[in-house]
């Protein structure tokens, strides 16, 4: 069977810079960022070096895909996935119609659910829900014991204040397993959208979203699916700052004397680590290009290549010579049938950690012509881990669509003289790459072509 | 101060929660309907109990739950125990 071409026909985003695609993109182009002091409660529990994070703000909205009760039984990652998918399908011009009112289940109108698939990446899955369950189990008995004591003031007031700060759930959540399991978000998409084909979850830490889209691209290209709902989700907040402390403890987070709004500075010499994001997500609709055209869909961009390698080096450190990053890039270029000089824009992994950015910048400098435009979406959003690759693939698609790239924030003194985008500016790119590198050493690179480019090829 | 709900208010709340749990209109939830006949699978009962506990500030033990077979039995149980709203 001849390989099919793969169109991106829709995208949806949940992020600290917007909970719909176009406001998110507008804020990216404006170079906005959200950097705030971490919740005070986190410092009560841990000595922390980093003091800032990027919270999501009010991200949740009503959706027919999840009732009030259903939302209570879904981890935030599942709820983010449903919201992003709802937007992506709507932007793809694909309506949802009721399939089973008794289950509040839908189907995508005009799509054979057995020929569709879900491909979703996440770094920590339902960690938030796991921690919530643990919080109840660990703290409920001490709470009962303390409440049973006949304490006198001021001890009684102090104990009550401590219990109040711990905000222990009323009861153990009987849905904790279904909320914690990493495949829950992908399963929720399958269940709610009536998708009966492959339903895969990619646990690839910071590369998870890119792994998911890459594998979805292959599934559509090879004819396993006609349509894929693909992307990445993450939710990293918890009452005690557990995930934050884990990254803080190994010195991965942005810290130091710089003011909050300047502390996140990928590729800059003064970078100190990544900006911890509360999370977010992005979903893309990938379709057989020919079928998408037949139904008159707008094509946002075309996915044309994918490369994937592993460092086989260390769980938390990138291999310093960057050989497998370079090989992932080369595999992706070969898969797309293009040369480095064809790539006008690279959405870099660009976390802001001293070691990672140094390796990435060196590989980019070695492989691409000096004029190749580069930015880091993490300079705006911070690091959304498993969601980042999906959000950045969306940014790459929008950069191709609009011919304009967002600024890489706080990049005043780069180590290497690459063609970084410092202010939002026009980018004349036919092809773009989006690359992600994970804890664990997984490297993944997507190649996208502009939709106008897609129009010039005979099918 | 917590207000005690009367029987009619408890009945309405129970029917609302059942309708929401089972994706049905409230008019489909009759007082003498068996939960099983309304299509409540075991996971729906877990959901219902969790929602009842949230709504009425009560903790339901396993032996209580085993006796909840009809909509009326749920209302009877909650009214007998006294519930706030």
What does this structure look like?
The complex is a heterodimer of chains A (459) and B (85). Chain A is of the alpha/beta class and 459 residues long. Chain A is built from 16 helices and 17 strands. Chain A has helices at 21-29, 40-45, 68-72, 76-91, 127-148, 155-166, 176-180, 184-193, 208-221, 242-249, 289-294, 323-336, 354-367, 378-381, 388-402, 451-456; strands at residues 6-14, 36-37, 52-53, 96-100, 105-108, 116-122, 199-202, 227-235, 279-288, 301-310, 343-347, 373-375, 404-405, 419-420, 425-426, 431-437, 442-450. In chain A, α4 crosses α8, α5 (127-148) runs antiparallel to α6 (155-166) and α9 (208-221) crosses α15 (388-402). The longest helix of chain A has 22 residues, at 127-148. The two termini of chain A are 14 Å apart. Mean pLDDT of chain A is 95; it is low at 455-459. Chain B has helices spanning 7-22, 42-56, 62-66, 71-81. Helices cover 55% and strands 0% of the residues of chain B. The relative contact order of chain B is 0.23. With 85 residues, chain B is an all-alpha fold. The longest helix of chain B has 16 residues, at 7-22. In chain B, α1 crosses α2. The chains are: A alpha/beta (459), B mainly alpha (85). The A-B interface holds A 67-69, 73, 101-104, 170-171, 173-175 and B 20-24, 39, 46-47, 50-51, 53-54, 59.
């Amino acid at each position: 069977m001849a390989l099919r071409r793969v169109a991106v026909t829709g995208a949806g985003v949940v992020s600290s810079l917007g909970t719909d695609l176009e406001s998110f993109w507008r804020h990216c182009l404006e170079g906005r960022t959200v950097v705030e002091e971490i919740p005070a409660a986190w410092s009560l529990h841990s000595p922390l070096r980093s003091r800032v994070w990027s919270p999501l703000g009010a991200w949740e909205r009503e959706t027919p895909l999840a009732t009030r009760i259903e939302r209570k039984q879904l981890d935030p990652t599942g709820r983010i996935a449903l919201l992003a998918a709802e937007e992506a399908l709507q932007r793809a011009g694909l309506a949802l119609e009721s399939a089973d009112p008794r289950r509040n289940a839908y189907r995508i109108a005009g799509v054979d659910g057995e020929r569709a698939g879900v491909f979703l990446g996440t770094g920590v899955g339902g960690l938030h829900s796991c921690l919530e369950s643990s919080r109840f189990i660990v703290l409920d008995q001490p709470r009962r014991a303390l409440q049973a004591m006949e304490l006198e003031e001021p001890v009684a007031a102090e104990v009550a204040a401590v219990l109040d700060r711990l905000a222990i759930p009323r009861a153990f959540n009987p849905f904790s397993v279904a909320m914690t399991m990493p495949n829950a978000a992908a399963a929720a998409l399958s269940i709610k959208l009536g998708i009966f084909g492959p339903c895969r979850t990619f646990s690839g830490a910071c590369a998870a979203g890119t792994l998911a889209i890459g594998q979805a691209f292959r599934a559509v290209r090879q004819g396993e699916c006609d349509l894929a709902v693909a992307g990445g989700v993450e939710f990293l907040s918890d009452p005690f700052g557990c995930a934050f402390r884990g990254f803080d403890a190994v010195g991965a987070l942005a810290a130091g004397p710089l003011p909050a709004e300047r502390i996140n500075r990928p590729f800059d010499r003064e970078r100190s680590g990544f900006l911890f994001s509360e999370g977010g997500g992005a979903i893309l609709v990938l379709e057989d290009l020919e079928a998408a055209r037949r139904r008159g869909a707008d094509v946002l961009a075309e996915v044309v290549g994918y490369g994937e390698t592993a460092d086989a080096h260390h769980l938390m450190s990138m291999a310093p010579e960057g050989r497998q990053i370079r090989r992932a890039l080369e595999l992706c270029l070969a898969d797309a049938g293009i040369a480095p000089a064809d790539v006008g824009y690279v959405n870099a992994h660009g976390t802001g950690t001293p070691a990672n950015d140094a390796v990435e910048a060196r590989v980019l400098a070695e492989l691409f012509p000096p004029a190749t435009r580069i930015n880091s979406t993490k300079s705006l959003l911070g690091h959304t881990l498993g969601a980042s690759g999906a959000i950045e693939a969306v940014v790459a698609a929008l950069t191709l669509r609009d011919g304009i790239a967002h600024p890489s924030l706080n990049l005043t003194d780069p180590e290497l003289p690459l063609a970084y985008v410092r202010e939002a500016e026009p980018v004349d790119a036919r092809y773009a790459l989006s690359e992600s590198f994970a804890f664990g050493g997984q490297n993944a690179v997507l190649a996208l072509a502009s939709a106008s480019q897609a129009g010039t090829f005979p099918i | 101060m917590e207000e005690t709900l009367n029987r009619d208010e408890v009945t309405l709340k129970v029917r609302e929660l059942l309708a929401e749990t089972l994706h049905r209109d409230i008019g489909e939830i009759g007082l003498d309907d068996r939960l099983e006949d309304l299509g409540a699978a075991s996971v729906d009962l877990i959901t219902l109990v969790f929602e009842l506990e949230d709504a009425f500030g009560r903790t339901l033990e396993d032996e209580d739950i085993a006796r909840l077979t009809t909509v009326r039995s749920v209302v009877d149980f909650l009214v007998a125990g006294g519930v706030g709203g």
